[in-house]
Amino acid sequence: MKAKWLAGVLVGAMAISPIQPAAAAEERGIEDEIIYDVLIDRFFNKGIQNDYEVRAQDPAAFSGGDFAGAADQLMHVKDMGFTLMSIGPVFASSTYDGKQVLDYAQLERHFGTVEELQTLIETAHQQEVRLMVDLPTQGVSKDHIWATENPEWFTENENGTLALDTANPQVQEELISAASAFIQKYEIDGLRLQDAPELDKGFIERFSEEIKSVRDIYVISDQEMEETPGLDAVVMPGAEELLRGAYKNFDQPASGLPELLEESDGKLVRVDSLLGSRFTADVVAEKGFPPTRWRLLLTQLMTMEGIPVIQYGSETAMNGTQLPESHQILDLAVEAELIDHITNLTQLRNTSEAMRTGETEVLHAEDGWIVYKRFNDEESWIIAINNSSETKSINLPADVIGSDKEMRGLFEGDVVRQEGNGEYRITLDREIGETFHITEERGLNTAYFAALAVLYVVFMLFIWFVWRKGKQRKADEAAKKTA
């Protein structure tokens, strides 16, 4: 797969319509990001000095992951092509996932020190990877530092945690003050508001405005919700359920996919939420093969409008039906095929503006067989995903592709040219996704064949020369024997 991708990149580089590289890190907007979503505790354990009462065998306990480990393994994230790493909550907490906050003014001691978090941020920025932190407010610890003096700021949840009343002006002041102090001390690039749909809308708008006056960073939601003033992006409602249902097995209904493709612009799109079960669990329940299902789903996720959000462990097809089972420790010693596929797709998205912000035209959608076009004024792509149990074909007219063009597949290596009837015929085997770059038809590569001809002549001359030398040597040896 990797070799085919590299060949495709070389073909694209020689195409008449070149693919422009992504904007530099300081010029990126939220629509240019590809987000990798982790929990510090479950990513990588660099040292044991902060392993306080760690019980790796207990899925509900701290496992030892820390800031130093995240910095140490940052190249895993960078090499896969992600541009923004969300590291979850980092404040002092009574739980490994950081949600049950004890104090917004302190870092969780299991995760590491002030210096280690600053090193992680600096390392990420050196690699042009942005860093985002979660801000929990609706499930904090009953021992939260504010709870004793200001119990009226909270309501109690069924599980015994506390929810801050974000409509309360005093609560708003304290949260804004705490977040402002945090981003002044740590140069992170974004804050994700946890349980965002439950927050007061006025608070969200005010929080974002005041935070951005301190430093212009992203403020996004963590759950599905409608667009809300103050949020740079929200998780698209219904997208996760729709995509998981469409790709958990082959021959699944395509209803809803065309609308999803055309309406996801500017929204966060994810399929493997850290809030519950993993997509792999859906596949296993259908008795499917997770790597194949993941490859097809990721092909759509990375080539559609919206901002892709990939959870840690998706690259290893991590399983789990509920928390904390779905928050396993990341195993980096895994088969690389799925990681390579993610890398190929992120490279494509990072180098193609049309894939990130271009328009979408759905050309065909039936059960398990979807074809769509991504394009802008400079470049055009055709994405074909055959998630069915049989080989599929489609004829695309010249008014979609253009005349005298060719379509070069980046993953399977196919080249599709205009036929005598003026159409372009795409054929894909079952459970295959392909991305075609539309370029000017190149025809026969005369320079290539000329070079082959010259190489052949030189090779034959070399053979002839060796033969003549060998014949002369034998003649000389025979002459010596008869002398």
Q: What is the CA-CA span between the terminal residues?
A: 65 Å
The CATH fourth-level homologous superfamily of the largest domain:
Glycosidases
* Name of the top-level CATH class of the largest domain: Alpha Beta
Q: Tell me the structural class.
A: alpha/beta
β-sheet strand percentage: 15-25%
Q: What is the topology?
A:
Blueprint lengths: L1 H13 L20 E3 L2 H4 L23 H6 L1 H6 L4 E3 L4 E3 L7 E7 L6 H13 L3 E6 L18 E3 L5 E3 L4 H17 L4 E4 L7 H14 L3 E7 L8 E3 L3 H9 L9 H7 L4 E3 L8 H7 L4 H14 L3 E5 L25 H15 L1 H5 L1 E8 L2 E7 L4 E7 L5 E5 L1 H4 L3 E5 L5 E3 L6 E5 L3 E9 L5 H37 L1
Parallel strand pairs: 1-2, 1-12, 2-5, 5-8, 8-9, 9-10, 11-12
Antiparallel strand pairs: 3-4, 6-7, 13-14, 14-15, 15-20, 16-19, 17-18, 17-20
Helix pairs in contact: 6-7, 8-11, 11-12
Tell me what the structure shows:
This protein has helices spanning 2-14, 40-43, 67-72, 74-79, 114-126, 169-185, 201-214, 239-247, 257-263, 279-285, 290-303, 337-351, 353-357, 398-401, 446-482; strands at 35-37, 84-86, 91-93, 101-107, 130-135, 154-156, 162-164, 190-193, 218-224, 233-235, 268-270, 307-311, 359-366, 369-375, 380-386, 392-396, 405-409, 415-417, 424-428, 432-440. It folds into 3 domains: 2-356, Alpha-Beta Barrel (TIM Barrel); 360-440, Golgi alpha-mannosidase II (Immunoglobulin-like, Sandwich), CATH 2.60.40; 451-483. The protein is of the alpha/beta class and 483 residues long. α8 (239-247) packs across α11 (290-303) and α11 (290-303) packs parallel to α12. Strands 10-9-8-5-2-1-12-11 form an 8-stranded parallel beta sheet, covered by helices on one side. It has a 6-stranded antiparallel beta sheet with strand order 13-14-15-20-17-18. A two-stranded antiparallel sheet has the order 3-4. The model is unreliable at 3-22 (pLDDT under 50). The chain is globular. Residues 1-24 form the signal peptide. GO terms for molecular function: hydrolase activity.
